[in-house]
Amino acid sequence: MHIHILGICGTFMGGLAVLARASGFKVTGCDANVYPPMSTQLVSQGIELIEGYAPQQTQLKPDLFVIGNAISRGNPLMEEILNRNLPYISGPQWLSEYVLRAKWVLAVAGTHGKTSTSSMLAWILEYAGLAPGFLIGGIPENFGISARLGDKSSHQPDQQESSSFFVIEADEYDTAFFDKRSKFIHYRPRTAVFNNLEFDHADIFPDLAAIQQQFHYLVRTLPGNGLIVANGLEKNLQQVLAQGCWTPIEKFGVDEGWQTKTLTEQNIEITYQDKSYGRLRWDLLGEHNRMNALAAIAAARHAGIPPDIAIAALSQFKNVKRRMEIRGIVNGITIYDDFAHHPTAIKTTLNGLRHKVGNARIIAVLEPRSNTMKMGIWKDNLAASLEIADQIYCYANHSEWDVQSALSPLGKKANVHYELVQLINSIGVIACPGDHILIMSNGGFGGIHEKLMKSLAHPQ
């Protein structure tokens, strides 16, 4: 069977392409915005990429077109598909029907931490010998790929022979232009992690209540023999569960659930209902990662993995690309790449870096690129999320609001640029050995990492 994927270079659709090819499908795809790491991953998998959405792509005569949620009416290829009444399906529905149907699905949902927690959970299962499949919105360093089909395992409890475990990052974003339900509605998990819940995706959700409704739709699909692993500190999640729940719940972050006792920043004790399950020694920083670890350990236990094995696995966890990833050190200046694009994530990431570097100077470089950021929904929260940095540079060419005014509470340490070259040159003027430059964006940011490192290596 031949499938042709529209929007193939998106994180989700690119992972889907890898799964489809591993399942024996012929896979081709197209996109209008191709950049690493997804484009590199697809090429390495032998998947043909076509630039743009020319209607002539229907001449490939695939059996089915798989439509990404970046595709809208007016797209020339989509219009040709509709006019000719050719078969099409959304990415999440295709995944549900062709990959997830016979799996024990472990889904990780929430505004923040989905990628990191999914990666931790997949690695725990891998370490325990369960060879899980997974589809993650990033590239875990332990695997080097964002998606794989997984192998059947003889160690799967309470499973039919044809089934296996599958870890998926459960995004609340809408499915497609013709299906406005959240993606995760299609996944039918047995184990569900609810990390947190804030308002986001203002381009598709009018308010927090609309997102909570989608989360409750997901709750309604969970079986009675499943498990919800929920952040006990999140009132917004508690409101969702209070609407009705038919599945057992384990909480983390609260006295009656899973907790961490911090011995040092990177040496923590894991407890559940006051019983200690061991100490985790790892390289990750920040309270958010400790909470992610608790969620992953609890979800893995539901899949039959003892907490001590999960803790041992996490001691070898290497994080995810674009999550505080060191891209290079040039003339004593360390450059990091991070996916943070929501004020909560920005503040959390900067706090983690501050714990790591102490009093060293932090230069925060931000591209407010998400749809919610472009709309200015978080403009009143942005300055506070950045204040821990010593210098702030903002690339504002995507923004539909007055970024300079929004950052004015930060005073002279805030710098706003509308040209990438000027921004890079400005950073180059002030950067000194010992500085830590944290670049934050949910996109390619114009290749700033390599350009900045080149500029720092050859100062004018």
From TrEMBL:
Which residues are ATP-binding? Answer: G110, T111, H112, G113, K114, T115, S116
Pathway field of the UniProt record reads: Cell wall biogenesis; peptidoglycan recycling
Q: Which cofactor does it need?
A: Mg(2+)
Q: Which stretches make up the Mur ligase N-terminal catalytic domain? A: 2-99
Upper lineage ranks? Bacteria, Pseudomonadati, Pseudomonadota, Betaproteobacteria, Nitrosomonadales
Residue intervals of the Mur ligase C-terminal domain: 322-443
Identify this protein by name.
Answer: UDP-N-acetylmuramate--L-alanyl-gamma-D-glutamyl-meso-2,6-diaminoheptandioate ligase
Q: Name one GO biological process term.
A: peptidoglycan biosynthetic process
Q: What class of enzyme is it?
A: ligase
Q: What does this protein do?
A: Reutilizes the intact tripeptide L-alanyl-gamma-D-glutamyl-meso-diaminopimelate by linking it to UDP-N-acetylmuramate.
Q: List keywords of the entry alphabetically.
A: ATP-binding, Cell cycle, Cell division, Cell shape, Cell wall biogenesis/degradation, Ligase, Magnesium, Nucleotide-binding, Peptidoglycan synthesis
Question: HAMAP family from the xrefs?
Answer: Mpl (MF_02020)
Molecular function in Gene Ontology:
ATP binding; UDP-N-acetylmuramate-L-alanyl-gamma-D-glutamyl-meso-2,6-diaminoheptanedioate ligase activity
Q: Name one Pfam family in it.
A: Mur_ligase_C
Q: Which superkingdom?
A: Bacteria
| The keyword Transport is assigned to this record | no
Could you say which EC number(s) this protein's record lists? 6.3.2.45
NCBIfam families in the record, alphabetically?
A: mpl (TIGR01081)
Question: Whose protein is this, by species?
Answer: Nitrosomonas communis
| Ranges of residues in domain Mur ligase central | 108-300
Query: Does the entry feature the keyword Cell wall biogenesis/degradation, yes or no?
Result: yes
Question: Which family would the database say this protein is a member of?
Answer: Belongs to the MurCDEF family. Mpl subfamily.
Show the catalytic activity. UDP-N-acetyl-alpha-D-muramate + L-alanyl-gamma-D-glutamyl-meso-2,6-diaminopimelate + ATP = UDP-N-acetyl-alpha-D-muramoyl-L-alanyl-gamma-D-glutamyl-meso-2,6-diaminopimelate + ADP + phosphate + H(+)
